[in-house]
């Protein structure tokens, strides 16, 4: 199977899952934004994405995307470490055109993973999970979960660190995905870099504004 | 204007492929700045031979930047601090009096060290042998211009063909990936009608050989293109990916 045997095939899996996760993040940020306008409307969104068959199917596909992306990341990194050899260079220099994020995707990914676990614990484990297990009574509603998480002041800085890591991760990941899929050329490499930068900045800024607003609303 | 500089030279010494290597520091004094880097190493070797020590082994051949033989990792850069130039085109005027210059071999699992600063780049030959050529029975030679080729495609193919296969891309890459080399070799044919005939077979064979020889996976950091002495562009890698995906889809 060329998606596992060939180096380009493995990268295609990384790029397709990565783009899928960027798309998910975009929808996530937009759905959170509903709570900025009206908490009742946000409640309706949460209701819609409860433990229905379509929401569960979506969650399963999303989880699959995350798992594939993470497993392939470790696999590729291990292979790359082996290809580099045992002796490291004594003196190294990063050329100007090489982005810092591009050389630190695994570290950034690990920070994002830690943030993801915390975030799932804050929301998914208290909303969809109990509902899935048939415990409808202890399942929190959207507003309750928001209040429980953001009424604690330490949550905001931790979330902001997570957002920063995701921002760095996407600024490289976005154009890199299109490069791997072979859709770029001299002109489009720069264009995808620009689009990726703006996309990451707008989406992550929206998340940051939302987190700040919830903290102000529930904790202050 | 020519001046003389003195500096410390930290050189990787390794007696053989299986031996343990180490850095040796040499004091170089009064080296004219118009000396090329390789000539400076020649001066060092003369001094070492006079003292009865083993000279430093390093690869070199044409010394005019076209053969791709010279291969030193100098102060954190393949082919040293100059851009768009090979080690043999690097002059001592790039350095200053009192500097410490660190010289290492290419470090990659696919390029094992032979001795000191020499590495075995036979892996590149094997990738070329897997498909980096055009093979057909042409019969008599065609008239010139019988096959119209656009200026854009001709220029791109020529730029890609300027790869000298020195391995700086692999040395620069944190993943030890050979994608820039393979993509240049694939591109120079894929862009021309003569190369399109075997394009699918070629890209699959060369990529499979690259993977088999233990090169890493490309993560698009772009260090290869930034350090390439022939300024091979990153868009070649996109073309390689595109050619490979098209070939796989049409299987």
Distance between the termini of chain A: 55 Å
Number of strands of chain A: 0
The string of secondary-structure elements of chain B, in order, is: EEHEEEEEHHHHHHHH
CATH class assignment of chain A: Mainly Alpha
Whole-number radius of gyration of chain B? 20 Å
First CA to last CA of chain B: what distance? Answer: 62 Å
Name of the CATH architecture of chain A: Up-down Bundle
Ranges of chain A where pLDDT stays below 50 over 5 or more residues in a row are none
Going by helix content, strand content and strand pairing, the class of chain B is: alpha+beta
Greatest contact between two chains: A-B, 45 and 50 residues
Tell me about the largest β-sheet of chain B: 5 strands, mixed
Q: Tell me, what is the CATH class of the largest domain in chain B?
A: Mainly Alpha
Average residue pLDDT of chain B: 95
| Count of the separate structural domains of chain A | 1
Please work out how many helical segments of chain B DSSP would assign.
Answer: 9
CATH level-four homologous superfamily name of the largest domain in chain B = Alpha-helical ferredoxin
Strand order of the largest sheet of chain B: 2-1-5-3-4
CATH structural architecture of the largest domain in chain B: Orthogonal Bundle
* Percentage beta strand of chain B: 5-15%
């Amino acid at each position: 199977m060329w998606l596992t045997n060939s180096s380009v095939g493995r990268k295609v899996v990384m790029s397709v899952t990565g783009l899928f996760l960027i798309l998910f993040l975009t929808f996530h940020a937009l759905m959170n934004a509903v709570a900025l306008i009206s908490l009742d409307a946000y409640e309706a969104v949460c209701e819609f994405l409860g433990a229905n068959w379509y929401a569960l199917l979506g969650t399963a596909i999303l989880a699959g995307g995350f798992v594939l992306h993470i497993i392939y990341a470790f696999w590729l990194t291990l292979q790359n470490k082996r290809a580099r050899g045992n002796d490291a260079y004594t003196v190294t220099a990063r050329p100007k055109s090489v982005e810092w994020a591009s050389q630190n995707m695994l570290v950034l990914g690990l920070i994002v993973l830690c943030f993801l676990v915390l975030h799932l614990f804050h929301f998914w484990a208290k909303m969809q999970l109990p509902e899935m297990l048939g415990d409808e009574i202890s399942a929190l509603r959207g507003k309750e979960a928001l209040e429980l998480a953001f009424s604690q002041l330490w949550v905001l800085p931790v979330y902001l660190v997570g957002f920063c890591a995701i921002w760095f991760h996407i600024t490289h990941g976005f154009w890199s995905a299109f490069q791997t899929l072979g859709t770029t050329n001299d002109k489009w490499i720069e264009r995808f870099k620009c689009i990726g930068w703006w996309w990451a900045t707008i989406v992550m800024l929206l998340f940051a504004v939302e987190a700040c607003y919830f903290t102000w609303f529930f904790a202050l | 204007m020519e001046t003389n500089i003195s500096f410390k030279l930290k050189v990787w010494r390794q007696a053989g492929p299986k031996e343990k290597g180490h850095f040796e520091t040499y004091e170089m004094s009064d080296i004219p700045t118009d000396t090329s880097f390789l000539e400076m190493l020649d001066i060092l070797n003369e001094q070492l031979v006079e003292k009865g020590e083993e000279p430093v082994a390093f690869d070199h051949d044409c010394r005019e930047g076209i053969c791709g033989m010279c291969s030193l990792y100098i102060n954190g850069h393949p082919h040293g601090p100059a851009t768009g130039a090979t080690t043999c085109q690097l002059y001592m005027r790039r350095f200053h009096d009192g500097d410490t210059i660190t010289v290492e071999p290419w470090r990659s699992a696919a390029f094992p060290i032979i001795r000191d600063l020499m590495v075995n780049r036979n892996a590149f030959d094997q990738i070329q042998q897997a498909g980096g050529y055009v093979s057909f029975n042409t019969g008599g030679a065609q008239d010139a211009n019988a096959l119209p080729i656009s200026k854009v495609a001709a220029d791109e193919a020529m730029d890609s063909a300027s790869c000298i296969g020195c391995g700086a891309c692999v040395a620069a890459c944190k993943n030890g990936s050979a994608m820039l080399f393979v993509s240049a070799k694939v591109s120079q044919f894929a862009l021309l009608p003569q190369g399109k005939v075997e394009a699918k077979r070629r890209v699959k064979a060369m990529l499979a050989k690259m993977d088999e020889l233990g090169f890493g996976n490309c993560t698009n950091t772009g260090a290869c293109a930034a350090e390439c002495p022939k300024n091979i562009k990153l868009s070649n890698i996109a073309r390689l990916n595109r050619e490979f995906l098209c070939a796989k889809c049409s299987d």
